[in-house]
Amino acid sequence: MKIEVECGSLADAVEAIEAGANIVMLDNFEPDGLHAAAKTIKEQHPHIIVEGSGGITEGTIASFMGPDIDVLSTSSIHQGVAHIDFSLKVARPA
Q1: To 5 degrees, how large is the angle CA 5–CA 7–CA 59?
Q2: pTM, entire model
Q3: pLDDT tens per residue across all 94 residues of the chain
């Protein structure tokens, strides 16, 4: 079993790793901050899987890719999609 922990800072990620996490999801980091945190994690814990998440879209994904990032995830597929609001009204015949 693998344990993944969502982390909002490098300190949170280190704490999660020390508590036994196998995967740390670095959430809502800017690309530069993500790369710096991932590099620090990989230098100290090369076996840890580092996932980047939050703010990643089709247009920005390239800036989040890097040698110390193992996985990127996005919710823009379902959160950023426009929707149509429609309804069906049934009336009794007069």
Answers
A1: 105
A2: 0.80
A3: 999 999 999 999 999 999 999 999 999 999 999 999 999 999 999 999 999 999 898 899 999 999 999 999 987 666 656 777 778 788 888 7
- Given phi > 0 = left and psi -120 to 50 = alpha, else beta, which region is 20? left
Tell me the torsion sign for CA atoms 7, 22, 18, 39: negative
**Is residue 66 classed exposed, middle or buried when 0-12, 13-18 and 19+ CB atoms within 10 A define those classes?**
middle
- Listed by start position, the domains of the chain span 4-78
Class of domain 4-78: alpha beta
